[in-house]
Amino acid sequence: MTEASFDSQGAPARKRTSLTVTDERTKARNRAETRFRAYGVAAICVGVFFLIVLAFSIIRSGLPAFTQTVVAVDFQLSQQDFDEAEAQLFKTKAYEGFLIEAIRGKLEERGLEADFDAGAIERLLGKPGSTLREHYRANQQDLGQEVYFQLAAASRVDGYLTGRVTRDTLQDSRFLQMSDLDLIDELVAVGVITRSFNWNFITGADSGVDDPGGAGIGASVIGSFFMMLVVLVLSLPIGVAASIYLEEFAPQNWFTDLIEVNISNLAAVPSIVFGILGLAVFIQFMHLPQSAPLVGGLVLTLMTLPTIIISTRASLKAVPPSIRDAALGVGASKMQAVFHHVLPLAMPGILTGLIIGLAQALGETAPLLLIGMVGFVARGNPEGIVAGFTEPNSAMPAQIYTWASRADPGFYEKAWGGIIILLIFLLSMNVLAIILRRRFERRW
Amino acid sequence: MYDTQNKESALSQDDIKISARNVQVYYGDNHAIKDVNVDIEDKTVTAFIGPSGCGKSTFLRCINRMNDTIDVARVEGDILLDGENIYDPKVDPVQLRAKVGMVFQKPNPFPKSIYDNVAYGPRIHGLARNKAELDEIVERALKRGAIWEEVKDRLTAPGTGLSGGQQQRLCIARAVATEPEVLLMDEPCSALDPIATAQVEELIDELRQNYSVVIVTHSMQQAARVSQKTAFFHLGNLVEYDDTDKIFTQPEDPRTESYITGRIG
């Protein structure tokens, strides 16, 4: 068709344009798109940058918590030495003397000066004599044999090696003197002072406020585990049953609308409110034990339920109605349609929601403040399953909070170390969520 | 309104499978089906035609009470299946749906294996005592669904992996596996290409020997090809119901004529 024919039909004359020349409108549009992409990339870069900074600082501050400074010596004690020491009035002093001799020997072997006194060793190691004595009294067959001892060094020795304590900042001579630092340097040089992996941090319980070296997160991991068990056992069946009823069976009326709105509201209620509710209902009214993982689990269940209900309902809603029709069409009852067809298809979404809810509960501190799981010093791991639920214990985030608020700087790195452990748990739960989703995901 | 009473007298009572009397359907305030009376014969394909929104699918869904699943839908009047009112309070819709199977507009196989798709109905109704019987039922149903030859070597493959036409025939096989007496089809070919449509139509013709088939269709050609009886719905009314040949050649109502000649709809 020619241009003339357009004109003849009364259409406005169209300017002939080339496709190879970009016009102004297109240019403006392209610029806008480029700008938008740049914003997106910038936003992601900022996010990734902060993530890297966060991960780096957590790892740098937390890693020292996983190692501890030890004084490692080969030690030989004869039957005669043992009898002599046991005959003395200050028995542990005698053992300390043997240790000092052994350390002196190490230094002199390498031709180094070895003029330090028992006070220095006590500042470095606390009271090592009693550790040695306990060992030999319990294992008399070791007498005359060479035994390798690893004795935990004091928190400030640890601090000196990790850079927390320097010669400039050394103030309180009660704990460590300048001459001790020289001794430490010498002992490091001959390999008597080394750093070794701190299993006690992972398996042990919290220590007192003056002993950061002995503090472990193990007991609170168990506390968290029992809490999560309570949350899982209660919130999964209650949450899923409530969602299925609301989504598939409940009549649509003002009452179910009200319930629906309130569930959404509950998801937004600050967690400390659940904490005070738990304190009032579970502890003051029902007289459940304070600081117990059972109560913590109940409170966290209340907090997790809305999350699980919302995500379960969303995944039930996402199942195409044609599947329900198909099941009803072959004569399945409503319940058969839901349990045989809808629920399996909604499973990946339900599991993801559940695990995200659990992860949220695992990291929650505020409600635990109010039911007494914070600031409590767990002296050991619970004995047995029932005790695990009812004996006072701490939880991982509560333990971290406790450490962070203590004065001794040694606890500071314990707190960071605890965060690393907590993050490992959260990450593995998220990975599990992804794996489960992939595994159960089916297309229709 | 076309009067079906005169026609009915010509048929013996045994030939009538479903009879609807003064059926009204409301969706909330919307009066979707107005006073429908119809007698559907056994071993016959009955087509419901009419423009979109005329109520033909709604009426179809009344016959196996699928409208019960819609909260706002309300059905009045009586629908008799073999002389029993299916809206009687004593009737369990689940039992009814085992007798009145349904095939939907979009193929909707379960995301399970082909075998499990077909075996699901017989399983929940307890039609098979053991695995061998179930295998037999599945094979018979797939053969009736005219898909046995294509899937017999991959019964464990997912039903959703089949092509659209195969999926629809699988759904038909699934519907016949529960040994229904009536088969309702809601635009079963609207999502299919012409070849798959031809296969399904051929299948519908075969199914007529065992079942009373009611099919809703948008395609008048399809209605003319597969059905012996045709009902024309318009704005919620059953305008005309007669032998298909008669409807398409000498319609009595001017609205029917307008519709089949393409002037309305």
Describe the 3D structure.
The complex is a heterodimer of chains A (444) and B (265). With 444 residues, chain A is mainly alpha-helical. Chain A folds into two domains: 66-208, no CATH class; 218-440, MetI-like (MetI-like fold, Orthogonal Bundle). Chain A has helices spanning 3-8, 24-62, 79-87, 91-109, 118-125, 128-138, 155-162, 178-190, 199-203, 218-249, 254-267, 271-285, 293-317, 321-329, 334-362, 366-370, 385-390, 396-404, 409-440; strands at residues 67-76, 146-152, 193-197. A three-stranded antiparallel β-sheet of chain A has the order 2-1-3. In chain A, helix 18 packs antiparallel against helix 19. The radius of gyration of chain A is 33 Å and the shape is extended. In chain A, 36% of the residues are buried. With 265 residues, chain B is an alpha/beta fold. Chain B has a domain at 5-108 and 182-260: Rossmann fold (3-Layer(aba) Sandwich). Chain B contains eleven helices and ten strands. Chain B has a six-stranded mixed β-sheet, with helices on both faces. In chain B, a hairpin with a 2-residue loop joins strand 1 and strand 2 (30-41). Chain B is globular, with a radius of gyration of 18 Å. Chain B starts with a helix and ends in a 5-residue tail after the last helix. The chains are: A mainly alpha (444), B alpha/beta (265). Chain A binds chain B through residues 251-252, 320, 322-333, 336, 340-341, 345, 442-444, and chain B through 64, 66, 69, 71, 94-95, 97-98, 101-104, 106, 108-111, 120-121, 124-125, 160, 171, 174-175, 177-178.
